[in-house]
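Whether sequence alone determines local backbone shape is best considered at the level of individual chains. The sequence in question and its structure tokens are set out directly beneath this paragraph.

***
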Amino acid sequence: MNKIEHLGIAVKDIEQANKLYESLLGYTHYKTEAVESEGVITSFFKSGENKIELLEATNEESPIAKFIEKKGEGIHHIAFSVDNIKKEVERLKKEGFTILNEEPKKGADNKWVVFLHPKSTGGVLIELCQERNNS
């Protein structure tokens, strides 16, 4: 794993959260994107070399809607950038981690993504991210 790519934060209202983070950070978000397969709208802020991803559910079946219902708004996941997501999945499986989606899927911000189950990572949802043009 290379670095923390972003922190994912579950929010009920992305417009309201954008205003809050714009006030907090002193600058505006640089991108908003819908990820239909996950049932979310995302908004990205750049913070130094890292990013903050705000996530609002677009339907009640979205993992974000379920997360907020269970735990409330807040940090949802930590994402790490990787050079080769398939090799990293194989390495982590050998280490005993539970992979939620072994086949990478398209995520926000032009990434391939795979998630690790929080039960195998000390209660933290981990996302692996690889640039889609680095196949």
Notes: The chain has a mean pLDDT of 95. The beta strands are 3-11, 31-35, 40-47, 50-57, 74-81, 105-107, 111-116, 126-131. The radius of gyration is 15 Å. DSSP finds three helices and eight strands in the chain.
